[in-house]
Amino acid sequence: MSVRTRFAPSPTGFLHVGGLRTALYNYLLARQQSGQYLLRIEDTDRERLVPGAVEKLLEAFGRVNLLPDEGPRLVNGAVEQVGDVGPYIQSERLPVYQEHAKRLLDAGAAYVCFCSSERLDGLRKQQEIAKLSTKYDRHCLSLPADEVLRRSAAGEAHVLRLRVPEGETSFEDVIRGTITINNAEVDDQVLIKSDGFPTYHMAVVVDDHLMKITHVIRGEEWISSTPKHVILYRLFGWDAPLFAHLPLLLNPDKSKLSKRQGDVAVEDYLAKGYLPEALVNFVALLGFNPKADQEIYAIDELIELFDLTKINKSGAVFDQAKLNWMNGQYVMKKTSAELVALVRPFLDAAGKTIDAALLEKICAIEKTRMERLTDIVEIVDAYVSVPAFDPAILVWKKADAADSKANLVGVRDHLSTVEETVWTEIGLVEASIKAYIESKGLSNGNVLWPTRVALSGRAASPSPFELAWALGKDETMRRLDGAIASLAT
Ligand code: GLU
After folding, report:
1. SS3 call for 488
2. Residue 156: inside a domain, yes or no?
3. Residue 435 belongs to domain with CATH number
4. Whether 212 is catalytic
5. One domain for residues 83 and 15
6. Are strands 159-162 and 168-173 parallel, antiparallel or unpaired?
7. Domain that holds residue 164
8. How many percent of the chain have pLDDT more than 90?
9. 204 in ligand 1 pocket by Cβ < 6 Å?
10. What is the mean pLDDT of the chain?
11. Is 19 a pocket residue for ligand 1 (Cβ < 6 Å)?
């Protein structure tokens, strides 16, 4: 039987980083086993409907390159569905759920309930006061069939409830082992709501079965729902899929990752200059690391090494500093031309126009220092015009102002005579300055420190060779002259 997994988000309007991890694990397993990975939109909660949410979600999936083999996709801005066991959007499948609900009703495994929300609220309050578990009291379980017919025909609002059988329910969680629950603790769950829409529990079971899902990989928050699902599988006479409940994502203080403590939307991370592939690598390791001594994994490696049984049970801390580092590793591996294309939108958004050739040089020499693409917005400033700086930082720790000034004059005079071709390569600039230092019997530190600061205006920056190459002859000379003039000796 071919492995089929699915990611089944409710369209909230954004893709949560936890959702990205769930989707990714489903994708990795399906790819590894040459199976299929499906996307299904669970939009049966009509009260929480967010306009445009499905499109936004699909757009985010496109950006992180986790498009499903089956399910909805965005084609020229419109939602199209791929695959033949759809529709993959639950609100488009209502007759399927209703037909299955009827089967349960006919078999006596479900019953119609007319209780008003006022009655249910009152019941819950009483149970809370009496410190009992809050459960439906089966008030409508034994209504005569003709009364049910009469009242529903008269248009009285009603729901369909699961009649939870007696006994125990067990299931095997790939990550957590066997979980057993006494059915007495399970509520007679609503299966079909008064608006005719199925609840999550009903829809998820019917769909996972009809879509031939073999592995349900989802967040830990769904564990308590799983016994209800297993009961439904049994009542329908179906085999349940394998379940794997992923550990919670935590803030560094071990609280549940929440919007209050920072961003949780993939879209926000992308907007803040994180690369999709870095984000994917980072979330892959939240709760799973195939090798103790490795952090950077290409997607193909993750596919090869993924192992559901090696996922941790305990919560995974979302470490922002690690994400920044990891993103920097991916930025570093880009070619300068790739980086130019990636950073340009951030510069445009900041209203900064910059010459393409200069930007490519900046990217070439700054990429090892960048963590996020947005870093470029500040970085370019020092290339467009030298930042104001305290001339005291021109003086190397083993020198004085007079020495620094003399060395700056020397470098300037040397560079003013070199051939034009020297400016075309970092290596040529470096060789030329180093040959000059050697020919004069000078020390590297005395010459290179003030030169670097004169060109960058910063105490920490790329090397003077890289800076001179990026700035070109005219700007290099201008900056050296400015620094010389600022050293009053
Ligand atoms: N619709 C649920 C969610 O929003 C899906 C849970 C599941 O995967 O079964 O996460």
Report:
1. coil
2. yes
3. 1.10.10.350
4. no
5. yes
6. unpaired
7. 93-246
8. 93
9. yes
10. 96
11. no
